[in-house]
Amino acid sequence: MPSLARRLLRRLALTLVAVWGAATLAFAGMRLVPGDPARVIAGGVQANATPEVLDAIRDQYGLREPVLVQYGVFAGRLLRGDLGGSYQLNQPVSGVILDQLGPTVALAAGAAALGFTLAVAVALVTAGRPHGRAVSRALEFGSISTPNFWIGVLLLAVFSFRLHWFPVIGDGGLRSLVLPSVALALPIAGVLAQVTREGLERALDQPFAVTARARGATENRIRLRHALRHAALPVLTLSGWALGELLAGAVVVETVFARQGLGHVVVAAVRGRDFPVVTGVVVLSALTFSLINIVLDLLYRLVDPRMRPEPA
Amino acid sequence: MTAPTTAPYDPVRAAEARSRAPRRQLRPGPVLAAAFLVLVCAAAAFPGLLAHAPDQVDPAAALRGPGAGHLFGTDELGRDVLARIVYGARPSLLVGAGSTLLAGLAGAAWGLLGALGGRMAGGAAMRAADVLLAFPAILMALLVVAVIGPGTRNAVLAITVALAPGFARVVRVQALVVRGSPYVRAAVNLGLPPVRILTRHIVPNVVAPLLVLATVNVGTAIIAGASLSFLGLGPQPPDPEWGAMLAQARDYLDASWTLALFPGAAITLTVMSATVAGRALQARYEGRDAA
Amino acid sequence: MSGPLAEVAGLSVEFPTRRGVVRAVRDAGFALHAGECLAVVGESGSGKSVTARTLLGLAGPGARVRADTLSFEGRDLRALTPREWRRLRGRRIGYVLQDALTSLDPLRRVGDEVAEPLEVHGLATGDDLDDQVVALLAEAGVPDPETRFLQYPHELSGGLRQRALIASAIAARPSLLIADEPTTALDVTVQAQVLDLLDARRRDGTAVLLISHDLAVVARMADRVTIMYGGLVVEEGPAADLLSSPAHPYAADLLAAVPDLDGPVREPRAVRPAPASPSGCPYASRCGLADDRCRGELPPPVPYGPGRTVRCFHPGEDAPRPTARPAVPDVAPDVVPVRASTVASERAVVSVRGIAKRFRSPGGSWRRAVDGVSFELRAGEALGLVGESGSGKSTTARIVLAEIAPDAGEVLLDGEAWSGVRERERRPRRSRIQLVDQDPLSSFDPRFTVERVVGEGLPRGLTGARRRERVAALLGEVGLGPEILDRLPARLSGGQRQRVAIARALAPGPEVIVCDEPVSALDVTVQAQILALLARLRRESGVSLLFISHDVGVVRQVCDRVAVMKDGSLVEIGGVAAVLGAPRAPYTRALLAAVPRLHAGRRAAVPAPAMDLKGPT
């Protein structure tokens, strides 16, 4: 079997392990909750539900069964793609997630496009140029050290409350996507710009760059035709992390801008201990990240011929 | 946030670089960073010396801008923002430094087990890390908070759980590099027993760069902790905390935008100082110039 | 053209650094004519590469270049704009760097790399470009150029990569080819082929500026030789004259240090180790002839015979043998026939019996690294193991050291089982067999001082002051003073580090030391010191050496017997004089024919070996 296919299969198997592990972890978490799960479902520990209501809940959610049986039921449903029903929203978890997926994906995609473009542009312009590098390094350091929610709050204060350029509350329009994307993109763009520039500078120091110069190639040609591809490798390596940060950051940024989205849902679910929803989001993100990493792995091989398997 | 450092640290090249590095003079960046960190630590340890009464309500003086009497202004209940920031240093530092320390310790043991534990134990340890690394750190922390509930101590635990697998992976890579290094080969050829090689060569050369990495990562942990607080899942009111203060400020932006200025600046400056200090330490250790 | 193609005079290159200005090149100069090969020779840091790159306007970032004359094809290079420089590079001057693995962009196809100069200078486009590139690859001796065109550098062997790099450098038919250490990373047989390729360009009228540290390579190629030391040209002249009768003491020491295949075998002559002098003649700190004038005043270049100049107050004087440290008898009387003084017994210390080892390649197939190798290492002897990369010599060393277990066969140490027993049983005996490898620094724990590094090989019972004393004594044996006990090895020079490694290997009192390419990373004069040290230690302590090297000349100097490996098998084993003097195996003959010799001269260049010794990939 060609080693690429073998590797892909291996990665897919690992993905299944990761998803299963995440789901099991979430299930175990659910069972670790101090107190009676039925009470949690009934509206929190402090809620005074009648014993009859609690009994009904126990029957409905199968809480009387032994833990292993419950786990079996849980896993069986998961295999069929059934994530269960929300404790709080009286709606299937898959429905909740599907409803809220759109705005979050839009936000993450907008921030990703902005962040990667900004990072590569800044790195290409400033790599190996002492003055530009000093300025952009300071800016990058600042953006890396700043929490996205503070950027978000400041943007809101200035551009929405003061200047009224952008809406205060997310209304689903494209204009309401601008400020959240910037807040989300900036810290990540800072990291990516650093890594891209380091990659470029490392490549520009290599003997092959000297050779290219000695062939009469212009500086722009060396950067675009030679060095950029080398810089793409560490950026790809970091992209899995960066995309993860983007989706995770969306949780916080959605709260800042009072946007609809998965982040909003998950924060509410964590506050209200709505475990089926938390579990659903955890499983979904484990799956997403494993798939993203597989794609990045393939892209890496596309860029770096040394990583490709030898022809049989 | 600071990206996880995955490139294995090369102690041999570092030592060589260190030997070439000129004696470093005091640079302004690390000095300022250290001074600010001292201030923050003082605030965390003895907040009463620097400010008083973070929860003294004065509705008559609510939402004032910065000025005399209240240097940083007041919040919606008329509480002094400066005092709240001073008192907020403790939970912020506790979450940042505490979770890094715990995650570093757990990650070191975990990573060493992964590298040296053989096929079964080592493999299982690293598969577990893979599972935990399959989703973003914040989400992991949220899951933990969902289970154990909000609060300062729980936030420390949540972020520890979120950070530890990353440390484990770095430690494992570093341990594998050290174990395969020519100096361990030389020690084997000298006939040294395995325990001695482990304690004399492998552990010290894995732990030292881990310490440096952990220092640089304190900033990440502080931001993660502040994020939890911002979402209302960290220290609970009325205890002041920087992230939670920002969440409050967000609701009064139309009335007083400076309310959002100071807690955020406190977080960012602390993160910057921790990172600069960590990088200076790293540069000292690796013998190159601080970035 | 009647005048020189390239002319440089009064060239100085400085690099401003944080610690002050580094003067990389001082008052250098040369002239180069069409169809001529000029070699610039020197150790690392001598300024030879910087000098060559100045002709391309690529001396380095931040370099400050000054010259009285800097001309090429009649143009004054000092006045060129960046655009004019680019028109010169790759078009009129081709540049070949060493180590084609990193000098060709690893992420681009070989064809694209070779095509770049044609593209950049607008000399060809489209199909015509591809045709030209294929023709260039063929011209550079790359077999099956249409296939190679589409491959990536890592898919080619070292020799083919270097050929592709040369094809790229000559693509635009430049009149000058600068080759910076073009053969350094290559096996000798491949090296010979690459040198022939460069020589063919020279015969076709291209001037070649060859930068090299290897005098034997230079002897084969160059018409004229320039020797640099500490940024200065110390001697310049026709190759044949200069190499047969060097006038500058540094040139003489350099020549004496080259382990050659011809002439009597002598104890390697050591040169005093010292950094370049800050004032006066830079070589004064190492020179056997240096007097106060040399130390205080920089000698001017003076004519010395026809077409020669030398920068020395004592040109051509016979230097008294320099002594390293008065206390250290590193430097034995000059002509000591090594083998006569050491009598190896017939007792085998290490017996290697039919060992075989295969490894899995990344592609999944199995590769035989070692296949049925047998030999004995006798008490007190030095056995050389020579072969090219991939011949299995290092794998053999690792099996002898019991770092890896052979798939078949066995190794005996003092007649007792050594391979195939449990590590627990082997561990107490490990002190009998020690290793000195190519890169000493990485074999030291970076946190350890010299004392701890060496002390680790001592018995654990020895502690405190007595342990320190013993370490100091061991350092004394390898020619190092006690003042380095508390230093970190990273702060030592390459030669000192290798001495520390040898001291550590001596610490447990071994019967055998395996030396795996112990001098390959060192400058030739330092190499000579280490070889002299090893020879003396063997004479004094009777330790046996298994000496692994790609360099036949080095093996000839140190060893009594030599074993030649190829593709995992021993092709020939016997006394050094017999094997090297009258090789029986065809491979040994080809290997010896390819080794560049100091005194063979270029006109008597050995023809390239008939057989292609390595596969195409």
Short note summarizing the structure:
The complex is a heterotrimer of chains A (312), B (291) and C (617). With 312 residues, chain A is mainly alpha-helical.
Describe the secondary-structure layout.
The complex is a heterotrimer of chains A (312), B (291) and C (617).
Chain A: H1 3-32, H2 37-41, H3 51-61, H4 67-79, H5 93-126, H6 130-145, H7 148-162, H8 175-205, H9 207-214, H10 219-256, H11 262-271, H12 275-303
Chain B: H1 11-20, H2 28-45, H3 47-50, H4 81-116, H5 118-133, H6 137-148, H7 152-179, H8 182-189, H9 194-230, H10 242-250, H11 261-286
Helix pairs in contact in B: 2-4, 2-11, 4-5, 4-7, 4-9, 4-11, 5-7, 6-7, 7-9, 8-9, 9-10, 9-11, 10-11
Chain C: E1 6-17, E2 20-32, E3 37-41, H1 48-54, E4 64-66, E5 69-72, E6 75-76, H2 82-88, E7 93-96, H3 100-103, H4 110-120, H5 126-139, H6 145-150, H7 158-169, E8 176-180, H8 188-203, E9 207-212, H9 215-221, E10 224-229, E11 232-238, H10 239-244, H11 249-257, H12 292-296, E12 302-303, E13 309-310, H13 338-341, E14 348-360, E15 366-378, E16 382-386, H14 393-400, E17 408-413, E18 416-417, H15 423-426, E19 433-436, H16 450-455, H17 464-477, H18 494-506, E20 512-516, H19 524-541, E21 544-549, H20 552-558, E22 561-566, E23 569-575, H21 576-581, H22 586-594
Parallel strand pairs in C: 3-9, 3-10, 7-8, 8-9, 16-21, 16-22, 19-20, 20-21
Antiparallel strand pairs in C: 1-2, 1-4, 1-5, 5-6, 10-11, 11-13, 12-13, 14-15, 14-17, 17-18, 22-23
